[in-house]
Amino acid sequence: MALGAAAFTPQLEHGLWLLAASMTLVGMSASVFNLARQKFLTEAVPVMFRARALSTLGGVTRIGIFIGPFIGAGIMQFAGISGAYWVGFAGMMAAAALSLTIPDLVAPETSDGGPRPPASTLRSVAASHAGVFLSVGFGILLLSALRASRQVVIPLWADHLGLDATHASLLFGLSGAIDMLVFYPAGKLMDRKGRQWVAIPSTVIMGTSLILIPFTAGFVPLLLVALLIGFGNGISSGLIMTLGADFSPDNGRSHFLGIWRFIADSGATGGPVLLSGLTAAVSLSAGIWATGILGFAAAVVFAVAIPRLKHRRNY
Predict the structure, then answer these.
(1) Could you report the per-residue pLDDT of 281-308, keeping only the tens digit for each?
(2) Right CATH number for 128-305 from 1.10.3210.10, 3.30.70.1230, 3.60.21.10, 1.20.1250.20?
(3) Which bin fits 106, alpha (ψ -120 to 50), beta or left (φ > 0)?
């Protein structure tokens, strides 16, 4: 509904306030929706298939993000800029209708038939799992900052090199295409070998790629680095959700995943802020290099904090 309201803002004289309110509601609704889908899959899918399921969820989301702008651009040729909002509105209504067909999960009874444990609170979950939030959660914050910054870095450096909008869009599109192709193999690897097998390489690859960007001086070198970034980000598809599911308790899972999502969103907000601040204070290259270092820091955190898979399963 918020996207439908936003579609009318271009025709209103003071539509900025309506647009701001609409986008606030979109953000709030998206957070609730993302949390609900993660909790559902965490409980609906067996643990042995968890990483594959959540990586596929992340990959499907990436596919939607990739094709959505093309659909919106096509509709805007006939309906103007409001057409993009109507595409979003139609997509959300379809998602809502589809959600109505998904059955609710039945809460399992306790093994001894006794009463269920008392309901948890946000404060109790935060206190009892503080060690996880301060260790693996810090790695998640760094990874989110890295992911958010990479979306800004490619077009910024393309503009720095004097590339036109067409070439910049091509760079971003091809990087996104690589991103979409590797999510399922990465999830399967996490299920079979352990989460570290994806968490560490993905952050190292993205960190290395960002370090290399300031050394590129043309379209082709930048394209190769952009493809490498896409590969690194693609294999990390679903990683944040999978780790959140792994560490979440049965009692208080919603509270735990809510805090987990807040940590990830904080990193996604802080990464571009760090990039812009260092760019303004020093240079664009310095900002990109600092962002790349976040990848290596995240790899170190994951290497230390994520437990290794003790028993290898053949599935």
Answers:
(1) 999 999 999 999 999 999 999 999 998 7
(2) 1.20.1250.20
(3) beta
